[in-house]
Amino acid sequence: xxxxxxxxxxxGPAGLFTAHGLTAAGIDYVVLERQPEIVRxxxxxxxxxxxxxxxxxxxxxxxxxxxxSTPLPSQTxxxxxxxxxxxxxxxxxxxxxxxxxxxxxxxxxxxxxLYETLPERATKVRANxxxxxxxxxxxxxxxxxxxxxxxxxxxxIAGDGVHSPTRELIQRLRHDSSAxxxxxxxxxxxxxxxxxxxxxxxxxxxxxxxxFAESHGPGIASQSARLxxxxxxxxxxxxxxxxxxxxxxxxxxxxxxAQEMSDVTVFPGVKLKEIWPLREETNAVLLHQEEGMAxxxxxxxxxxxxxxxxxxxxxxxxxxxxxxxxxTVLINSxxxxxxxxxxxxxxxxxxxxxxxxxxxxxxxxxxxxxxVFISRFITWMGEETEAMDREVSRDLNLVEDSxxxxxxxFTPSPIFDFLPFEGKQGHTPWExxxxxxxxxxx
Length: 442
Ligand SMILES: Cc1cc2nc3c(=O)[nH]c(=O)nc-3n(C[C@H](O)[C@H](O)[C@H](O)COP(=O)(O)OP(=O)(O)OC[C@H]3O[C@@H](n4cnc5c(N)ncnc54)[C@H](O)[C@@H]3O)c2cc1C
Known about the structure:
The protein is of the alpha+beta class. The chain is 37% helix and 25% strand. It is built from 14 helices and 22 strands. Flavin-adenine dinucleotide (FAD) is lined by residues 9-15, 32-35, 42-46, 107, 129-131, 159-161, 165, 197, 306-307, 314, 319-320, 323.
């Protein structure tokens, strides 16, 4: 599409998926990642929900992702001390309804597949490219890198994560151009939890393959699963007070945290202390888990996507899904604008970005709210929550409850509106469809 060129910041799930979407839309791009390598095995498990797999199917990379993933058919919930709460085949039921399974995949393998299936990755994805500033002018942008070089483009899509420097820049630009505000913009992403993520390749066959294990308790929860390649675990602790500054933790701090959590049951009959000594040391990370939504997602020719715009804790497992759905809506909106005018003005682009922001803010809000609720509920905010959890669990039909919560969030999920596609269907129809034109089907 003309010589319109998108500069994508960050090669996380949001950035690399955006690159795939732009490729499909015929829009030129370059991805800039500040880390020295694109494929890194930091982090733990990412849950690939049906709406995300449907989009990967539309892009033709579902089978590649499936090959590396492990089906997650069921869930088991219990307390720290190992008392059962509830369980069931909720994810099998979800597949019946929507046609796609729910899969578990490491963040590293998700990045690897998104990267390795990207056409022209060798020339279009650059590692060691730390963006330090963005200049905007009437017809385009110039992105400055830490090595002193500059890259020109038409717009910036920033998938630069929860501590997004671009979000700060947008806030500053809006703040400077606002007639009223002389208050310093505040960080919208606040952490009330911290988490230990890790994995081990030990062969504990007594841990059920693909069962999503979740423990609940006062101030602490865990979520773990044994996948085909490794056993992934996350232990979450509620912080005494909220924090918003970026913080990295030393190996000593990580080990101290693991020691504190050693008696937490992470799988039925398995405590953290049994699998922690077997971990892959370089891949264990301790992170603050922020929650929040940026007030404005764009300014001029700069727009945010993924965690930079909306962040939830790993406890509702929808960070990657939300990032990818946002990227889809943004690309649909951008492509429609470029179809009308291949050299859109800043004003036309801002209209496209406003449409994207409005649509996604409405969709993300209930997901964020659900995440806020789940995080507090499973880390028992007080005796009342514990009593409620125990009572609800006793009477709960987990399958029915999961479908009731998830189907209204998932069925309206977007797909690329410019790619003819007949995806999988279950008993509950997707609200947004993209059927091939009649002639193409003959
Ligand atoms: C190391 C790590 C591990 C994670 N592990 C898990 C996990 O186990 N489970 C889970 O559910 N979620 C995890 N997450 C979060 C999950 O990846 C996100 O919620 C979701 O996938 C949305 O991703 P994103 O692409 O918006 O942001 P991110 O995944 O954070 O990616 C942002 C990317 O932007 C790059 N970047 C930032 N600033 C610049 C800059 N100035 N110039 C160039 N590049 C820049 C970063 O290096 C990073 O690669 C993890 C995130 C990270 C960074």
